[in-house]
Amino acid sequence: YNVNVYPKNQMETLTVDKVIVGNDGHETKELDIQIDDNAMFRIRADVPNYVGKLKTFRIEDTLSNGLTYDADSYVVYGIDRENQERKKLTNGNEYQFSIEKQKLIWTFRNENISQSNTKTHLYDEVEIVYTTTLNSLAVVGAENGNDVSLIYSATAHQSTQEDPTITVKPNVTPGIFTYAVDLHKYGNSDESNPLK
After folding, report:
1. What is the pLDDT of residue 179?
2. C-alpha span between 43 and 148 (Å, rounded)
3. What is the sign of the dihedral through the CA atoms of 31, 143, 175 and 29?
4. Running DSSP on this structure, what letter comes out for residue 3?
5. CB count, 10 Å around CB of 11?
């Protein structure tokens, strides 16, 4: 058995990661695409052991201005590693999804992803998959980056009025790249006479 013991009410250290899923299904941190092409992202985040005792457990994912979120494209799964089970979770039940400009937010309803008696998690991790489209605001020749954060209560006290939180980010965030070639044709090789 793998047993981790923490001081009373102190939260364990969690991790979050975000990758790009290529057309062949492989995961990467960088991808080159063209304007109007799609890019799929996958987020994985640990679930606190006693998530049912927390006030806060959410994921915030901010896209660059060059990426447009494809409406209704996301899917959220709860992952049970021990039993190798993967369950699709439902907006309005296990979590609440919202959008603030370029920020995508999944706020989990902790009582619905934990055991009712022990308050321990039903899932070891959550996984989110969604797609975006590279738009005309994309930066050419440089990274169109992303910023994902896992935010959760620092203590397992639902009754306290204050709710200090811990914010965790990946070591490396994924980036989308695009390259444009500026082609001009000139009449009689005269740069002052561009052809249209």
Report:
1. 85
2. 8
3. positive
4. -
5. 20
Task: Kindly report, residue by residue over 82-108, the tens digit of the pLDDT.
Answer: 888 999 999 999 999 999 999 999 999
Q: Are 41 and 12 in contact (CB under 8 A)?
A: no
Q: Please state the separation of Cα 120 from the chain's center in Å.
A: 23
pLDDT 10s digits, 32-63: 999 999 999 999 999 999 999 999 999 999 99
Contact 56, 153 (CB under 8 A): yes
With a CB cutoff of 8 Å and minimum separation 6, the contacts of 130 are: 40, 41, 69, 70, 73, 74, 75, 104
Residue 3 pLDDT > 50, yes or no?
A: no
Structure tokens at 131: 């797609």
The string of DSSP codes covering 83-137 is TTEEEE--BTTTEEEEEETTEEEEEE-GGGSB-TTT--BS-SEEEEEEEEEE-TT
Taking the C-alpha atoms of residue 139 and residue 9, their distance in angstroms, rounded to an integer, is 45
Residue whose entry in the numeric block shows the structure tokens 């044709």: 185
10 Å Cβ neighbour count for 138? 23
